[in-house]
């Protein structure tokens, strides 16, 4: 997984030996293989494995595009929940 943004703040755990949270803002892009997501902001809680993206969220996966106000991704069970006005554009034959 690759995270890029105009600004990324790293918050370390209490012991100072590991990353607890990544806070990204300004043109956030997260890519994994051919799949990618964009948003205005993102918060990745490393311990829980949850990424919360907000602000004009757009997910592109196998030709299908989903847009929403917010998306919560759970990396542990490979699920995502979309919130706000959600719009899906399916590409036939790509699923």
- Helix fraction, binned, reads under 10%
What is the gyration radius calculated from CA atoms? 14 Å
By secondary-structure content and strand pairing, the structural class works out as mainly beta
* Percentage of residues in DSSP E strands: over 45%
Strand-and-helix sequence, N→C? EEEEEEEE
Number of helices: 0
- What is the count of β-strands? 8
Could you list the spans in which at least 5 consecutive residues all have pLDDT below 50?
none
> Per the principal axes of the C-alpha atoms, what is the gross shape?
elongated
Distance between the termini: 21 Å
Short description, anyone?
This protein has strands spanning 2-4, 7-12, 19-32, 35-45, 50-61, 64-74, 79-83, 87-89. The protein has 95 residues and is mostly beta strands.
Write the layout of secondary structure elements.
Layout: E1 2-4, E2 7-12, E3 19-32, E4 35-45, E5 50-61, E6 64-74, E7 79-83, E8 87-89
Antiparallel strand pairs: 1-3, 2-3, 3-4, 4-5, 5-6, 6-7, 6-8
């Amino acid at each position: 997984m690759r995270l890029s943004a105009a600004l990324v703040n790293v918050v370390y755990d209490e012991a100072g030996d590991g990353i607890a949270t990544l806070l990204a803002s300004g043109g956030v892009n997260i890519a994994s293989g051919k799949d990618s997501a964009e948003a205005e902001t993102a918060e990745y809680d490393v311990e829980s494995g949850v990424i919360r993206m907000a602000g004009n969220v757009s997910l592109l996966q196998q030709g299908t595009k989903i847009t929403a106000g917010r998306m919560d991704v759970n990396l542990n069970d490979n699920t995502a929940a979309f919130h706000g006005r959600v719009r899906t554009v399916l590409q036939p034959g790509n699923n």
